[in-house]
């Protein structure tokens, strides 16, 4: 429990910084983590001693470079676990997210690395299977608005890109991707690229997908 509380506090400060550009106050962290303010102060005091958090004159707490690094490791674990639960076990986003929030505190680095390698393996279609679903061509075609468009995979997009899904490459993934909201015509925002996962926003929900899945989703780039 102590490890989970400590890591949740680091994650709370990271999310606060990303959303507002500001530090977090004790009451904010308590609200985000579900811990009491007394307990949050104890944790923050310990994190100050380890050099992962700094306390500012305005009463806010900020992550130090060491704290940012620690929070990013936890976030990476979360994204890998959430991706695995959704893509491999078929959990819906909310349940996968909740489960990953618990599992991230206990999964070892070796476990996460093994899951990463598993998710990165090529699990594409067999020879002879259609390479694309819904695509009339490979080099360019008429998009949803009747304009000539080029396409690239979601894996090739950059942070902040806003795109529209045009097709899903391969077969056997349609139902699984539809459950995630990844269907032709849907708008997607790329929020954060990582080596092992891609964090995107679909239908106002943030979801993490593996590089293999991202490569199978083709998005429209209007010329």
Describe the model:
This protein has 223 residues and is α+β, with helices and mostly antiparallel strands. It has 8 helices and 10 strands. Strands 3, 4, 5, 6, 7, 8, 9 and 10 form an 8-stranded antiparallel beta sheet that branches. Strand 1 and strand 2 form a beta hairpin. Helix 2 packs across helix 3. The longest helix is centred in the middle third of the chain and has 23 residues. The protein is elongated and about 50 Å long. The N and C termini lie far apart (53 Å). About 13% of the residues have low confidence.
- Number of separate helices: 8
CATH fold call of one domain: SH3 type barrels
Order of helices and strands: HHHEEHHHEEEEHEEEHE
CATH architecture of one domain: Roll
Largest sheet: 8 strands, antiparallel
Low-confidence region ranges: 122-149
- Helical proportion? 40-55%
Going by helix content, strand content and strand pairing, the class is alpha+beta
Distance between the termini: 53 Å
CA radius of gyration is 20 Å
Which CATH class of one domain is shown? Mainly Beta
Strand percent estimate:
15-25%
